[in-house]
Amino acid sequence: MDTTNADPTELAKFDEMASRWWDPNGECGPLHAINPLRLEYIDERADLAGKRAVDVGCGGGLLAEAMALRGAKVVGMDMGEAAIKVARLHRHESGVEVDYRHTAAEDLAAEEPEGFDVVACMEMLEHVPHPESVIAACARMVKPGGRVFFSTINRNPKSYLFAILGAEYLLKMLPRGTHDYQRFITPAELDGWARGAGLVAEDFTGLSYNPLSKQYSLGRDIDVNYMATYRREE
């Protein structure tokens, strides 16, 4: 497996929490909360039923299983060995069929170029040393005319306040050290890398959290968390 685009500290951090991935009251609680929004965002734009999809950086398989339940044939891949083990274990418990692979995005792109109708890479780019390499791999994986979905965190004072000080220190929604502000990615940076890989932007949508209602919602504010849809040109 190509490990040149992996941070051992990040892998160890997520491997340590892997056994609690499916606990909605644990560290992955925010992922459980936003998963229905992520799923609807993708399904509305790609019509998952009958499509071949890949979840790049699938972790314990939350989104991968959800896409499979929408009728997609799903590959879930992650560089974290413990996360993939948990995902495979949960597959046996849930009966939701997902093909989980312990591999790197760059390796899967080399093995299956133009192999997928839908590529999702959610909450992953800000955890690797070279996000542009993952974006290029996603572009190679998707079929011409297919859709690629990214979600990540913007880099600005507001995102530092909300995503790090707020989420990790004040509200304690995430363990301290979950995110590194220097690795946050602006929409312009994401778009530049995506366009360089042959992708065309179709949508940018913000993901916001209301601490009073404790609810997440989609909207036009992309200052902190945001999702993006790209199409690979025919």
Question: Can you tell me about this structure?
Answer:
This protein is of the alpha/beta class and 234 residues long. It has one domain: Vaccinia Virus protein VP39 (Rossmann fold). Helices cover 39% and strands 25% of the residues. The protein is built from 8 helices and 8 strands. The protein has helices at 8-16, 29-46, 62-69, 81-94, 105-111, 131-141, 157-170, 187-196, and strands at residues 52-56, 73-78, 99-102, 116-122, 142-153, 199-210, 215-219, 225-232. An 8-stranded mixed β-sheet has the order 3-2-1-4-5-8-6-7. A hairpin with a 4-residue loop joins strand 6 and strand 7. It is globular, with a radius of gyration of 16 Å.
CATH superfamily caption? Vaccinia Virus protein VP39
- The structural class is alpha/beta
The biggest sheet amounts to:
8 strands, mixed
Poorly predicted runs are none
- The beta-strand count equals 8
Number of helices: 8
What would you call the shape? globular
Strand content: 25-35%
User: What is the end-to-end distance?
Assistant: 30 Å
* Spatial strand arrangement across the major sheet: 3-2-1-4-5-8-6-7
Give the helix level as a range of percent.
Answer: 25-40%
The H-and-E topology, N to C, reads as HHEHEHEHEHEHHEEE
Q: Report the CATH C-level class.
A: Alpha Beta
Radius of gyration: 16 Å
- By CATH, the architecture is named 3-Layer(aba) Sandwich
Query: How would you name the oligomeric state of the polypeptide chains in this document?
Result: single chain
Indicate the CATH topology.
Answer: Rossmann fold
Mean pLDDT: 94
